[in-house]
Amino acid sequence: MGIENPEKIKNVHIRGIGTCVLQGADYPRSTGDGSKILACPCPYNDEDLIRIADWIPDERKKTGKLDFWDKHNHSYGTDAGKEGDSQRGDWRNIGILFANVEDFSIENITIVESHGWGISLEACEYGRVEKIKFDACMSKMIDGMRQNLENQDGVDIRNGCHDIIISDITGHTGDDLIALTAIANNTLKLGGELNSTHVMHSDWLKREKDIHDIIIRNVMGYSQLCYIIRILPVNTRIWNIVIDGVIDTSPDDIINHGCILLGAEDSDYGKNLKDGMNNITISDVISNAREAITVSGYVNNSVISNVINRNSECSCISLRRENGLINVKTTGLCSTGIK
Q: What domains are defined for the chain?
């Protein structure tokens, strides 16, 4: 904490030998990202939320019709209500956090019931993340009640990362399994601050804010709630991305948001630039999700090929905005439902 400008370090390698497991605590002091408020208890099931959660208005409790954020704006943590302790999630909830690292590798590790993101990279370059298995479902039985644990992403690639290979990723996560998120707004955050899931500062005049040259391959898994792979540039650009070989292994009773998300709706974070995503190559995808490939931003000069959509209620590619695909070639799209 309090290190505003971490110096670059090189040649850092974390390698699991045999069966290497990083296991979340029985009673996590904090979970979720910087937007989540800690609560203890923090019910996951609707009936327990109606009975216990004091942040839900009485009128929604009486009708039993809860909205999305009734469950998802709070996350379990024994620090809840403790004077002097942060009341929101932050970067200390991340299992493995690298910031400003060059020439690195993380491999052969199983991450179980993480307190937040399993692995997060900020401003990292020339590295590999491979043979990682995740086991999380956005909830955990604690003291006889299923508690809500937010933002259990798998691998998160953040602003300033480039020349990285992510491969052989398996298992399941509560939130996105793999996310490339370059979000840059006008809020200045100092490095080492709490109440944020980023450990580095956000002065974009002094550090790189884009993401580029990333390979993602051999992914077999699913997300409990969100996406297997998310690419999200907000006021930034992401380019030269290869996604090759994605199998959605979600069981029949779990229908998550989607398999691959490209961009997002414009929000308080900022806007999707028209040249925000360039040279995106997606191939060999098998989807079981609510949507196979969702385009919510602008994708330019890209190729999408060999996508099998097993959901009979949607198309292989779903566009959320006009002119979302610009000079994009699609081949080998196969859906069991509509074209």
A: 10-23+95-335 (2.160.20.10)
